[in-house]
Amino acid sequence: MKGVLIWVLRLWSVVGIGLSRSEYGLEELKAKESLLSYLEKDAVSSDANSLMVPLTLIQGAASKGAVCLDGTPPGYHLDRGLASGANSWLIQLEGGGWCTDIRTCVSRKTTRRGSSKFMERQINFTGILSNKAEENPDFYNWNRVKLRYCDGASFAGEGQNEANQLYFRGQRIWSAAMEELMANGMQNAEQALLSGCSAGGLASILHCDEFKYLFPKTTKVKCLSDAGLFLDATNVAGGHTLRDMYGGVVTLQGVQKNLPNTCTSQMDPTSCFFPQNLIANIKTPMFLLNAAYDAWQVQESLIPSSADPHGYWNDCKMDRSHCNSSQMQFLQDFRNQMLDAVNVFSMSDQNGLFINSCFAHCQSERQDTWYGNDSPRIGSKAIAVSVGDWFFDRTAVKAIDCPYPCDNTCHDLVFNDVTSTITISRSTRLKFSLLNLLSAFLISLICSKCTMEFQFGQ
């Protein structure tokens, strides 16, 4: 693509804004959430021809205690199905990281990740949500729903903090949304797919069997998790960054009571928030779509700034082509951990896999990665084709890529000291200045709705 397109990155959605240099942990969490926000939401193309779908608030949710972090009602976007897809439903659970303590949750509730007051009144549907057959061949005419994420615990929390007026009601939001959608026609579904990206991909794993149980046995029900396979991995300093984060989420938001007892009867609650300890026991057919070198996990779980204070890993972290042999081996070991984590899961005939050797995060909602002329492939199959073949039982899909650097179809995320680049295609790149990003970050401290422009360019 040539010419210039304007991109807006809503930095006011960043979780955990810290004002003091001494609050280093909060600042690092803020950076994690900023990256997640960009990868999960803001990197989705806002094509002028894409479908814009309005927000619907669940008006009866508050009476059931099903509210966002700030007490406002949750919401969703629905585009009705047509013709052969009129009785088919796809539910996409929005991602957006987590809040792990009172301070980060208080900050989050003044963003679209914690309050419907700040949610966009309409969003564009692309990728798996597209209404065009040439962009989304198997699901374009289904009833397609984007359930907004405003609880900070992957739709799994239950509790509240009265002193700070925080409501941890993710499980109730899930239930209220499903109740409303069932009443709006989903109870007549002939087939249904629960999907989600990142924190929403984790949520699709947590709620997969619950989703199945909403329907009669005659309904074809499956689940898809995109970039939701977060691993309990060791960082470059030997610590467990993500375990520490998940421990805060589970403890603060009362997630334990909503975790499957098949796991909690054998492991601690934090371990049971990790997908690797859940997927083998899910009864409903599930498809795992994940980058073997997940961009967010590489950046913020494996190589967080706190684990690399001297910047030894900085060049490698920014651009995998700058990794030395020992650093690359560390990343290959992470890929091996991912493959080990799905080993038992993959043995089931009902499950599907697409694990490509890319440095990416969330590939189902982006049009360029979901289905396009140069979208990522394993063998000859694009992601959309693989998911469709699996859902409709056209063929078994257990696609695992060869290790980096063998795959030249990836749309990788690459950083450097001046710009951060997402390869949209082999000839087109999205670039933004990190200096501009930091400037906008400072502005966002005093303006919760400030935006920033990004440009496409050769």
From TrEMBL:
<dbReference type="GO" id="GO:0071555">
    <property type="term" value="P:cell wall organization"/>
</dbReference>
<dbReference type="Pfam" id="PF03283">
    <property type="entry name" value="PAE"/>
</dbReference>
<dbReference type="InterPro" id="IPR004963">
    <property type="entry name" value="PAE/NOTUM"/>
</dbReference>
<comment type="similarity">
    <text>Belongs to the pectinacetylesterase family.</text>
</comment>
<keyword id="KW-0378">Hydrolase</keyword>
<keyword id="KW-0964">Secreted</keyword>
<keyword id="KW-0134">Cell wall</keyword>
<protein>
    <recommendedName>
        <fullName>Pectin acetylesterase</fullName>
        <ecNumber>3.1.1.-</ecNumber>
    </recommendedName>
</protein>
<dbReference type="GO" id="GO:0009505">
    <property type="term" value="C:plant-type cell wall"/>
</dbReference>
<keyword id="KW-0961">Cell wall biogenesis/degradation</keyword>
<keyword id="KW-0732">Signal</keyword>
<dbReference type="GO" id="GO:0052793">
    <property type="term" value="F:pectin acetylesterase activity"/>
</dbReference>
<feature type="signal peptide">
    <location>
        <begin position="1"/>
        <end position="22"/>
    </location>
</feature>
<comment type="function">
    <text>Hydrolyzes acetyl esters in homogalacturonan regions of pectin. In type I primary cell wall, galacturonic acid residues of pectin can be acetylated at the O-2 and O-3 positions. Decreasing the degree of acetylation of pectin gels in vitro alters their physical properties.</text>
</comment>
